[in-house]
Amino acid sequence: MTNPRYRVMWIEDDAELLRLARLILSHKGFEVIPVNDSREAMDMIRREKPDVIMLDLMMPNVDGWDIYNQLKADAGLKHIPVVIVTAKAHAADKAMALHLAKVDGYLTKPYEQTQLLDVLNKVLSRRGDSRGKSA
Q1: Is it the case that residue 93 has pLDDT exceeding 90?
Q2: 3-class secondary structure, 57
Q3: Residue 74, φ and ψ in degrees, nearest 5
Q4: β-pair partners for 11
Q5: SS3 label, residue 64
Q6: pLDDT-above-90 percentage for the chain
Q7: Distance CA 132, CA 59 (A)
Q8: Pairing of strands 52-56, 82-86
Q9: Tens digit of pLDDT for each residue in 103-114?
Q10: Domain locations in the chain?
Q11: Rounded Cα gap, residues 48 and 51, in angstroms
Q12: Residue 68 and residue 103 in contact, taking contact as beta carbons nearer than 8 Å
């Protein structure tokens, strides 16, 4: 790749899902920053400044919505796109996230590799550059 890689922060308490996501995305040229402790998420976001955040909603310690609300309340971070990654597959959950909370994307577990890449490319293409196109 001639362009720098996209930096994807994946906040997820399931180590196996993190490993799989990292394997898929690394193979496609993304840099993956795994975060498996939700208590560390905001500090990691501030330190790493990822291009996009993949965020599990149901985690111990700090709920995914709490992280999302903290992120969007921070003037220096609120521009970072967030994709919700959750087992909540009901249409009402997705509608609430996309239309009321204004998340940038929604991915339901379990997901196919193509679904993951499609949602990432869609979100990243809104940034106005072409780095996501190679994935």
Answers
A1: no
A2: coil
A3: -95, 115
A4: 35, 55
A5: helix
A6: 66
A7: 28
A8: parallel
A9: 899 899 899 999
A10: 7-123
A11: 9
A12: yes
Pairing of strands 105-108, 82-86: parallel
Of 48, 42, 32, nearest to 120 by C-alpha is 32
Q: What is the mean pLDDT of the chain?
A: 86
CATH code that applies to domain 7-123: 3.40.50.2300
- Determine the Cα–Cα distance for residues 84 and 133; give it in Å rounded to an integer: 21
> Rg of the Cα trace of the chain?
14
Q: In what order do the strands lie in the sheet with 52-56?
A: 31-35, 7-11, 52-56, 82-86, 105-108
Q: Would you state the structure tokens that stand for residue 86, as one six-digit string?
A: 């959750």
Cβ-Cβ contacts under 8 Å for 122 (sequence gap 6 or more): 105
